[in-house]
Amino acid sequence: MSTAPTGPALELAASVRRGERSAADVVDEALAAVAARDPELHAFTLVTADVAREQAAAVDRAVADGRDPGPLCGVPVAVKDNLCTRGIETTCSSRILAGWRPPYEATAVRRLRDAGAVLVGKTNLDEFAMGSSTENSATGPTRNPHDVTRVPGGSSGGSAAAVAAGLVPVALGSDTGGSVRQPASLCGVVGFKPTYGTVSRYGLVAFASSLDQIGPLSLTVEDTALVFDVIGGHDPLDSTSLDRPAPRVLDGLGEPVDGLVIGVVAELVEAATPDVAARCRQAAEALAEAGARIEEVSIPEARLGLSAYYLIAPGEASSNLARYDGVRYGLRVDADDTVAMNTATRTAGFGDEVKRRIMLGTYVLSAGYMDAYYNQALRARTRIIEAFDAAYARCDALIGPTSPTTAFPLGSKTDDLLAMYRNDVCTVPCNLTGQPAVSVPFGSGDDGLPVGVQVLGPLLSEPTVLRVAAALEASVPAGTPPVPVPAAAGGSTGGGAGS
Amino acid sequence: MTAEWEAVIGLEVHCELKTRTKLFCGCRNEFGADPNTNICPTCVGLPGALPVLNRRAVELAMALGAALDCEIRPSTFHRKNYFYPDQAKDYQISQYDEPINVDGALELADGSRVGIVRAHLEEDTGKTVHAGTSGRIHGADYSLVDYNRSGVPLVEIVSGPDIRSAEAARSYVTELRGILVASGASDGKMEEGSMRVDANVSVRRPGEPFGTRCEIKNLNSVRSVGRAIEFEIARQVDLLEGGDQVVQETRHWDEDAGRTVALRSKEEAYDYRYFLEPDLVPLEPEPDWIRAVRDSIEMLPRARRERLAELLDGEGPLPASRLDQIATVVGLGLDDLVVATVASGVPPALALSRTANEAATDAEAARRLSITSYAGLLRMEAEGSLTSTQAKTVLGDLLAGKGDDPAALATARGFEAMSADSLATAVAEVVAANPEQWERFRAGGEKADKLVGFFVGQVMRATSGQADAKAVAAELHRLRG
Fold first, then answer.
1. Phi, psi for B420 (deg, rounded to 5)
2. A201: which chain B residues are within 8 Å (Cβ-Cβ)?
């Protein structure tokens, strides 16, 4: 691949570090690409050109002084707009936070910056990360670069589209029920959700605290490992942050998958359309050829995941979003007393899906219903954890589809709530268990659109999971839509040369 | 109130812990700063902020639990969800069904026991100021919220429904305050809001089940606690004796009007939707840490009172007056002074009386007295080199910081000991000058003993106050034979 700004971050950083390219040139090219393509895609909610140029200049000064700016030296990055960026508007794609500038910075964002990355802008999402298509954004949907009549997935649709369109090589998203992996799958890029607790949630606007994790989206598995090594590691500001040093998975990525036992999860495969399921089996064969032992695995409890998720996540969200009351920051719609003011503010400020989930979450936590719904979902969660643990007693890793389908047309599921929720059926189990999972582009569907295969592993098995992902990446079938998507190709279905 | 009603009272005391920083963030825990100057993303509830537990707060909570004889346990945090402007996240992080301290007890000065059901950790809210004529929320033009207090660590101490009178409630609050200060957990400054009391009050006929209770809020002094509970008991008894029901409600104590007032009534209890706080991990203090905290508790008030009582040990149970003196001395933190004084040879009864009655008038200065000076003074009194009146005067000088040496201070005042001879002479002269009274005194009996006062007064006048009253009385009795 080229080392244009749209090329992989690892090589880009190396070339800037060696002085072959200036960070200033790189960021200018990125900003030009954004200006050219984003008006159609709406991947970005905010382009931070001035900040980007300042940061690039600082990188160039450091290189000129003989200092190493860090592993992401001069790499343009985009950050999902639910990650706090100091002094830079952070809206969660919601009217209730329109214009809000955090006085502080998310730890993950700070670590990117400290590693020499250059912030090109904030990306579009489903409002407060609630959605699977980025159609719930207060500023309008993001479009899939492979076919602009289709969704990019969600909720990190903006980040996925920005990477897939070659606007930036890496972006950060957040994954609560699949919101990094599913859009990665639909956009044909790599999307990774690490083990819960490996990346600090400080500064990530909370949706569901026991499920949220920050993860990278990128063009290559190597870049994913690179970014994870930068943003991961203990943070004293997050009490749920694991007391472990920063990871170093990039180094071990090339190790072969010989002898690994990899299970194909029947319940995930059967949730998918036949073309997607076929790609998943093809992936299993590719791994077998690479020396892994493939097993058929059944985890019936995985079927409980969607229901459990849609009780636990809204429950926690109803509490996490209570703070948007018009008192301290964000939108305020005035009224005669605080209750009326709270109500008017939240009515005007929240979109429909957010309201639905807050109501649902309040209901499942309420007296008389909590045990039947929320606590029952927690019990189901335990069963799911135990079932996956049992599978990992026999397997080193598992695979399955990431998304049941390829990218669907904009507006095709917005009237059918459950159809929209079912997009998450393959991804939610790993949020419930806290285990790591990565989506790797692997082939295309019958419609020529990207398919993602998901690699899952036990807690803290990032090295194994990414190794398997790298092996899949090395054997992608012909017909896998190339990324970045060339500018001309995105206008119609079946984008991508060859098949 | 007719005699057949029994009051049943339980107290919930919110105690601010004396930490440097807040419960879940590094903001300063300090009273009186300019509004919204001790705040950060976490205690103001900004999007994306997270709580991190303050270890010192846990330590003080355990110290408090140990001082109240509680079992200290592994515990978890829960979210208590409700909307209010001074609640920065619109939920409070508290402890629900697994609190850190359970099953303790507090012994009142009179020996009765009040159970402590639990004492758990939670964060405080901000403070709201209503701008309008009454300062209350109703009719206010606007309200301002100060989040300096938001996130300050609290321990909520819940007593059992074991208290039976307003008097006992006051005693409980006083004793609890002493324990909180002694354990290091709190500065006990109720006037700064360090301790806030809510009272649950109901009445019943003895032997019957508990009646409907009302919760009274806004009790910020020991006096308010007593007055409010007295009022409430009477109010409930009047209602019931008049054939009405007591409505379960929350009432506000109006200090000026001297009555409890129903707050705007809520139809049902609020549903707080408690669930386990996902941003925190369970709290499991290491057993060594718990042990160290228990061992480090300073002597508690009850033990201090017992220590003084033992000094006076002798003839059976102490009279109420002595117990009062002991309570006063311990309550003012002057018991170490008494113990040290006795250790250097001063009679215990004198040390206690002088400290409880005189030194206590300026307790702050008394706590700064040097043992040498104070004990020296009391020894002079004990030996008779100073009369009690003179000793009290010199003590006043010591407290006022006029000097360190009681002998020098006495001399400066012109106080001298009267020798036994000059005392005897003075008494003899007064006796001779008052033959009638002397005959009546010699006759003996109750009336005669009252004449001691007359003679003492005369001797005092004759000696310009230098005679010691007790020595005069002793001489009179000696003369009488």
1. -60, -40
2. 48, 50
**In this structure, what token pair is assigned to residue B222?**
């020991």
B282 interfaces chain A, CB cutoff of 8 Å = no
pLDDT category at A3 given cuts 50, 70, 90 is very low
Contact A477, A458 (CB under 8 A): no
d(CA A346, CA A325) in angstroms, rounded, equals: 7
**B79 and A CB contact within 8 Å:** yes
From A9-18, A295-304, B351-360, B446-455, the region with the lowest mean pLDDT: B446-455
Active site includes A15?
Answer: no
Report pLDDT digits (tens) over A96-137. 999 999 999 999 999 999 999 999 999 999 999 999 999 999
Q: Which tokens go with B386?
A: 């100073």
Q: Is the ipTM of this complex over 0.90?
A: yes
Chain B residue nearest residue A206, CA to CA: B48
Question: Which residue in the block uniquely carries the two structure tokens 């074991």?
Answer: B162
Give φ, ψ of A119 to 5 degrees: -85, 110
My answer on whether omega of the bond before A155 falls inside 30° of 0, hence cis, is yes
**Could you tell me how many helices (H) and strands (E) chain B has, helices first?**
17, 14
Residue of B nearest to A326 (CA): B85
CB atoms within 10 A of CB B117: 19
Nearest CA in chain B to A97: B47
pLDDT tens digits, B4-61: 899 999 999 999 999 999 999 999 999 999 999 999 999 999 999 999 999 999 999 9
pTM value?
0.88
In this prediction, residue A494 has a pLDDT band, given cuts at 50, 70 and 90, of very low
Supply the DSSP string of A379-415, one letter for each residue: HHHHHHHHHHHHHHHH-SEEEEESSSSSPPBTTSSTT
Tokens of A467: 């190794």
Across the interface, whether the CB atoms of B85 and A339 are under 8 A apart is answered no
Closest residue to B271, CB basis, from A83, A206, A366? A366
Contacts of B84 in chain A (CB under 8 A): 338
Which residues of chain B neighbour A235 with C-beta distances below 8 Å? none
User: CB A92 to CB B47 under 8 A?
Assistant: yes
Give dist(CA A132, CA A311) in Å, integer.
Answer: 16
Q: How far apart are CA A78 and CA A149, in angstroms?
A: 23
Q: In what order do the strands lie in the sheet with B275-276?
A: B91-94, B78-81, B275-276
